[in-house]
TrEMBL record:
Keyword Ribonucleoprotein set for record: no
Chain ranges of the PPIase cyclophilin-type domain: 1-128
Record GO terms (molecular function): peptidyl-prolyl cis-trans isomerase activity
Protein name: Putative peptidyl-prolyl cis-trans isomerase-like protein
Keywords for the protein's UniProt record, in alphabetical order: Isomerase
Organism of this sequence: Chrysochromulina tobinii
Coiled coil: none
Gene3D superfamilies to which the protein is assigned, alphabetical: Cyclophilin-like
Length: 149
C-alpha cells in the first residue's frame, strides 16, 4: 500500500538500531482511508528461540504490553540479545549492509531517550519481496508497478 514511502528513519543509534517511524506518524505523503485503517492495527508477538537480534535483522516496534506490534520497525546495527524474545524479528537485510553502514555515519543528536539524525532521513520507496528458496529474492508480482513509477 506504499505505507513506508516517505516515512522517516527517526532514530539512528550506532551499533544498536536504525528505527523507522510507524506508518501512521512518520510519512510526509498523505494517507488514504484504507492505509490509515491498516496503519493503526497491532500484531501479535512471534518469537523463535533460534532467531536472534544480530546485525541486519528487522525487528518490529511495539509497546511494553504483549501483542502490541506496530508498523514501526528497527534495522539492527549490532548484536542486541536483550531484545530476543521481546521484539518480533520478521526479516533480515540480505543485501545492503552498505546502507546500514551509511546510516551509522549520519550525524545524530540525543533528544530525550532517542539518538536522532540531525537531518531528516527517509525511505523513498519500499517493495515486498520473498525468498525464492535458493538463497535469492523475488519481487512480489503486485509490486512490479511500483518499480515503473
Amino acid at each position: 500500500m506504499g505505507g513506508y514511502n516517505t516515512n522517516e528513519i527517526f532514530r539512528v543509534d550506532k551499533g544498536f538500531v536504525a528505527q523507522l517511524q510507524g506508518v501512521d506518524g512518520g510519512r510526509r505523503a498523505p494517507m488514504n482511508k484504507a492505509l490509515r485503517e491498516v496503519a493503526i492495527k497491532t500484531v501479535p508477538d512471534e518469537f523463535k528461540i533460534e532467531v536472534r537480534h544480530k546485525r541486519g535483522m528487522l525487528s518490529m516496534g511495539k509497546f511494553e504490553a504483549p501483542d502490541t506490534g506496530t508498523s514501526s520497525f528497527s534495522m539492527v546495527l549490532g548484536d542486541a540479545p536483550f531484545l530476543d524474545n521481546k521484539y518480533t524479528i520478521f526479516g533480515r537485510v540480505v543485501k545492503g549492509d552498505a546502507v546500514l553502514k551509511r546510516l551509522e555515519q549520519v550525524e545524530t543528536v540525543l533528544e530525550g531517550i532517542f539518538v536522532k539524525p540531525k537531518v531528516r532521513v527517509e525511505v523513498v520507496s519500499a517493495v515486498v519481496m520473498y525468498a525464492d528458496g535458493r538463497g535469492g529474492l523475488v519481487l512480489d508480482e503486485s509490486e512490479r508497478r511500483k518499480l515503473e513509477l
